[in-house]
Amino acid sequence: MEEYKTWFGVPRKEIKWYPRIDPAKCIGCGLCTQVCGRGVYSYDFADRKSVVIKPYNCLVGCLTCSNLCPAGAIDFPDPGVARDAARKFGIFKVVRERLKEHFEEFLEKTEKYRENVGKD
Ligand code: SF4
Ligand code: SF4
Question: Whole-prediction pTM value?
Fold first, then answer.
């Protein structure tokens, strides 16, 4: 999918952040295919195991599938890889620009939140 080709403007393939399944550990539950909303996984019904088909669709820094895998079969690089990429590619500048761009929106949401704290 086109929208996943970059991360804060950086070509996604520059950042080596993606899952790897250890087939010896995978019990074929299929959960990873359902919790990932980015189409990283498919399911091989012949082998009864999940497969990584679009590694670079993975959201940099996300670990959801790995955290939920009941067999501990999904590995990722050290989280330092994602943090280093954020620094190396200067994404904080982009973040600041986006915050400025959405200033009013954030202001309104935060004020609403503060008004309603403890009411629900
Ligand atoms: S969640 Fe883990 S055990 Fe289940 S299919 Fe995915 S890799 Fe295999
Ligand atoms: S870490 Fe997140 S985005 Fe990456 S494959 Fe797992 S669930 Fe999908």
Answer: 0.91
53-104 residue pLDDT tens? 999 999 999 999 999 999 999 999 999 999 999 999 999 999 999 999 999 9
98, HSE (Cβ side, Cα atoms, 13 Å): 7
Output the CA 22–ligand 2 centroid distance in Å: 16
3-class DSSP state for residue 76? coil
DSSP code of residue 49: E
Q: Say yes or no: CB of residue 81 within 6 Å of ligand 2.
A: no
> Which protein residue has the closest C-alpha to ligand 2 atom 2?
62
Among residues 92, 95, 19, the alpha carbon closest in space to that of 60 is found at 19
Judged on CB neighbours under 10 Å (0-12, 13-18, 19+), 61 is middle
CA distance 78 to 57: 18
